[in-house]
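Quick question: what would this complex look like in 3D?
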Amino acid sequence: MDEVKVRKKILLTLSGVAVIVLCYYAGGFVSKLVHGFISPSVMGMLVLFGLLKSGVVKREWVEIVAQFFLDNLMLFFIPVTAGVALVPFSSIQNDLIAIVVSVSVSSFLVLWVVGKIADKFESMRDGNE
Amino acid sequence: MAMSRIYLEIAFILLTLMVYYFGRAIYRKTKVMVFHTVIVATAVIVLIFEVSGLDMDLYESNTGFLKYVLNLSVVAFGFLLYKHYDFIKSRGLSIITATFIGSLSSILSVVLIAGVLGASPQMIITLLPKSITTPIAIVLAQKTGGIFYLTAVVVTLAGIFGAVTGSWFLKISGIKGRMSRGLAMGSAAHGIGTAKALEEGALEGAAGGLAIALMGIFTSIIAPLFVPLVNYFFGS
């Protein structure tokens, strides 16, 4: 009984890796068609969504692997954040105030704009019901 | 030579794994935002290389496998989009409109504020993906010619900022809807904000997840259009 479960999990892990890798390369192909305007991995994300939505790929085929990636995203970008040590401080120094002010003000703006628009739609919905 | 490079890759994967689990344990224990997994893990790696006197370049040029998998993790957002889309599909138009305008506001405000404050065009381009999830932000910054190492750090800090201040800011702004709040947190502060929104409820968390995926897509499409404008208006 348990052996069957383990075998199923292994198969679904392999299918998940296969589907995601294939979507990545399919995304690379579509990306070339639009002259790289959208990067291969973002295109791959849209390909995966399309395949799931159309039912070509079943949810359980990718669920284990996709969820693992989403739960452990940080593991894969730590090598990039650590690379900030390679950026000389002198190249950031002059822009430090611009960075802090623009990022914090813009974050508040996004919170406000998205929240207000969604609230507006919600109140329209409630009005119609 | 080729063989020793494989050993280095494996050693660095193990190092990254260890540091990642260490950072996660610290954050789970302290629950203090400044000790977020990414911050702790990044600091430990930088410290190890500083103290040992090893060249950071050695780590950066031998972590190709993890960086390849980073691309696959971006693809996995297609599953997130699908999972949460089915959950709240009756609100599709509201969600798409809000995140699209959110993405546009994020880009426009960064360009205007950083530009007026005298940031260099390359710095502005580095900051453009600040509200989207780190893997997609890195991919976008690489494509547009930003300093993507810095993008990754700014995105993490923006996420922490949004997660810490978001709840309070939404309250004083009179934004009450549960879905609206989750959507706003995911849009402004990606995964870190969504983790916070999830503490308020499952609906908030789902809306946040959807916002991460949509903000990533919209910003990946809109931001490259602004690159020539940034160079034209703020270039010397």
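Answer marked as accepted. Chain A touches chain B through 74 residues (CB under 8 Å).
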